[in-house]
Amino acid sequence: METDYEEDDDNVYINEELESGKEQVVVSHAPDQRIVPPLNFCPVERYLYRSGQPSPVNFPFLLNLNLRTIIWLANEEPQDTLLEFCDAHGIQLQFATINPDGGEDDNPWDGLTEHSIISALQTIVNIENYPLLVCCGMGRHRTGTVIGCLRRIMGWNLASVSEEYRRFTGSRGGRILVELLIEAFDTHLVKIDREKAPRWLLSAVK
């Protein structure tokens, strides 16, 4: 298979020939903006997303999601750039785990109390807050805890909940205390208004 290289303004573009002999579309110039999702970004359900803390390079990507709400799961406030982004685009930023007594931010469960988990989930089960992004510093343990508790509400078995949580925890793996917290969470504490719940949630809790 032959490959032609074309140089333009110090950028190299590749024009490849397919096996069928038809040319692929040639990219004549780089895009004006880089569309970069946040760390550990992933759709959870329709119009519900999870990630690590977005930075300015991620903002063009987030604009495409038309977010109405961002749930911030951390003891500390997010970066000023994220606060300014939410303010500029009318996005509600919910602080779900601000706990001044949580101590240093070196444990994934610091500040993540039952009350804060319920607060986040009450926002998630209301379609009026969508499209919605759940995030924390790295998008791993705290975000994984809230999403794991949501999966419990949806009736997932614990093996499936743990597998999803561990998928985002990186090389160090999951934390047993997080999984125990998810397992022990009382799903009946989250009140679901069936008139305002997302369709995918109603389908799961029938």
Automatic annotation (TrEMBL):
All copies of the Tyrosine-protein phosphatase domain together span: 40-198
* Protein's UniProt keywords contain Transmembrane: no
What's the Enzyme Commission number for this chain?
Answer: 3.1.3.48
Q: Which Pfam families did the record assign? A: Y_phosphatase2
Q: Which residues cross the membrane?
A: none
User: Which cellular compartments is it found in?
Assistant: Cytoplasm
Question: Would you tell me the Gene Ontology cellular component terms?
Answer: cytoplasm
Sorted alphabetically, the keyword list is:
Cytoplasm, Hydrolase, Protein phosphatase, Stress response
Task: Write down the InterPro entries for this protein, in alphabetical order.
Answer: PFA-DSPs (IPR020428), Prot-tyrosine_phosphatase-like (IPR029021), Siw14-like (IPR004861), TYR_PHOSPHATASE_DUAL_dom (IPR020422)
Using the record for this protein, list the coiled-coil segments as residue ranges, or answer none.
none
Q: Which GO terms describe its molecular function?
A: protein tyrosine phosphatase activity
Q: Which reaction does it catalyse?
A: O-phospho-L-tyrosyl-[protein] + H2O = L-tyrosyl-[protein] + phosphate
Its main subcellular localisation, reduced to a broad class, is cytoplasm
| Its job | Putative tyrosine-protein phosphatase required for protection against superoxide stress.
Q: Which family does it belong to?
A: Belongs to the protein-tyrosine phosphatase family.
Q: What is this protein called?
A: Putative tyrosine-protein phosphatase OCA1
